[in-house]
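--- STAGE predict ---
source: upstream dedup step, 1 unique chain passed
mode: sequence only
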Amino acid sequence: MSTEIQQRVARASGFQMAYALFRITLGVNIFCHGFMRIIIDTGAWVDSQLALFSPPLAAWESFLPTSMITVFLYVLPFFEVVLGIFLALGFFTYWSSIAGALMMLVLIFGNTTRHAWGTVGNNMHYTLYFCILVAAHPYDWFALDNRQSS
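--- STAGE serialize ---
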C-alpha cells in the first residue's frame, strides 16, 4: 500500500471509511448484476423477465408495451456495469448515485405494473442505498472524484 493511501486511511473518520466501504460494495454488487447477465446470456435473461409481465406468471397482462420493456431489459445490464464501475471507483459518485436511484424508480414502476410487491420491496432497499450515498456524499473521501491533479 502506498504511503499516500496509508496516510489517507489513517486520517479517515469512521463515517468516511463506512461511506467508502458501502459505496465500493454497492458498486461491485451493481456491476455483478449487469456483468453476469451479459456473460451468461442476455437474451435468455430478457426472455425470462418478459415472461413475468404476462400470464400465467403475472396475475394479468402489464399495460406497458412489450417493445418498451424489451429495450429497457437489453439496456439495463450494460447500464448496471457502467454504474457499478463508476460507484466502485468513486467516479462521478454523486451523479452516479442519483442515476442509480432513478434506475430503481424505473424498475419499481415496472414491477408495480405486474403487482410484484415483494420485488418492489427489495427494490426499495436499493433505492435507500442510493439515497444514502447521495445524502452522505460529503463523507466520500476515498474516490477518483477526490484525486488531486499534479
